Structure formats: structure tokens, C-alpha cells
Amino acid sequence: MAAAGGSNIGLRKNNEDSYYINDDCKLLAIADGMGGHEHGQLASRIAVEQFVSLAEGRCPESFSLEQMKAMFVQANRAVYKKQEALHSGIMGTTLTAVLIDENQMYAGHVGDSRLYLLRDNILTQLTLDHSYYAELLRQGSLDIPLENRQKHVLLKALGPEEQVDGQFLQETLSAGDMLLLCTDGLYNSVQEAEMHHVMQNNTLPEAVDQLIHLALERGATDNITVVVYRHD
Predict the structure, then answer these.
(1) pLDDT tens, 106-116?
(2) What is the domain range of residue 83?
(3) Is the N or the C terminus of the chain less surrounded, counting Cβ atoms within 10 Å?
(4) From CA 59, how far away is CA 50, in angstroms rounded?
């Protein structure tokens, strides 16, 4: 599988992001933790580990959207149980995950990390941001005072509640299609047109490095995590 990933702490004291790439199973996952430094790190790691376990031993011979939904239920349950056991406040994480079975892409998503598809020279955001600000925009509230945007307030995350509804989608991929998974540390600092240009004009490892560098250059204060995939 042609994929590359990377993460940078940015200006934070801890990196609460996690990511995972499994070449054999064509599995990609990215998570951005919340709930304080230690809790955020732990939550994102627990969520991603659910997908690591999927690839342990032997890759699934076939996959479905129902299996992706089941993996998200398990991931949410694991983070929720850890939160209950710690008895020290809310712990949660975003999670965006992709499994590619031949030409079929199965994706699951909760939170405000993102999945993009680059096809025919057009970069499209496939996931919805589960945030207060994004919901205001979807409802048509275009003139939002800056102080009220609350971009970082999540409406959905894995862990804080016993159950959560995610977004699940299936897409048929064609040769040359590219996927970008990223946390908000990237897209809050780098424009989509710039992401498009970097992805189109570099090798995958170079694209990851350049996207992270761009975000840091623009003064990104959050952790920055990027995974790029090309379908061949």
C-alpha cells in the first residue's frame, strides 16, 4: 500500500494525536484526544488500538460497513470504560478510520478530524465536522462573531458517553485517487488549495512533511497529524 504518515507536537506540551497505518490490511486511522494531556493521549491511543487489533494475526478476508460500525462501537466502549475507571473527568477522542478492500473504501468518523478525497484534480472533504461551529454553518449561520465560533467544541466524540452515532461511508476508489486524513492542527492553519497542491506535486512522505511544515510555519498551536494514501 502506498501510504505515509507523520505527527508533530506543535506548540503543545504533549502530543494527544495518534495515527496508524497497516500496509498489509490497507488500514488507516487517526485520532485527536481530549480531556487533558494524559487523558487525551490515552483516549486517542485506546481508540486507535481497536483498529490495530483488527489487523493482528491475519487481515480480514473481506470487510463491510457494518464491521466498521462495530469497530467504532468497540472503540467507544473501550474509551468510555477507561474514563469511568479513572474517575477524573471527561476523556474522549476523535477517530477517523479507513479500510480499503480491493477498490472499496470503508470509512468511519466521529469528531472533527477529517478525511479528504483527491480525485480528478478536485479535493473533497468526505467527513462532516462534529463541532458546534460546523453545525452553526450547516444551519446557515454564516455571520458568526469570532468570539462565539467555539471551533474546538465537539458535539460528538468517542468516550464521553456510553453510545455515540458516527458517520460511516463507502466509496469506490479508482487508480490515482488519493486520501488525506488529518487532525484540526493541519486544516486550521493550511488552506485546502494548499493541501491539494502539496499532495499533487510530491511523493507521499514529502507531502506529509511539507503539510506539517506548512502548518508549523503558519503558527499552528495544536498537534498536527497527517496520513496520505494513493490508490494504485
Answers:
(1) 999 999 999 99
(2) 2-230
(3) C
(4) 14
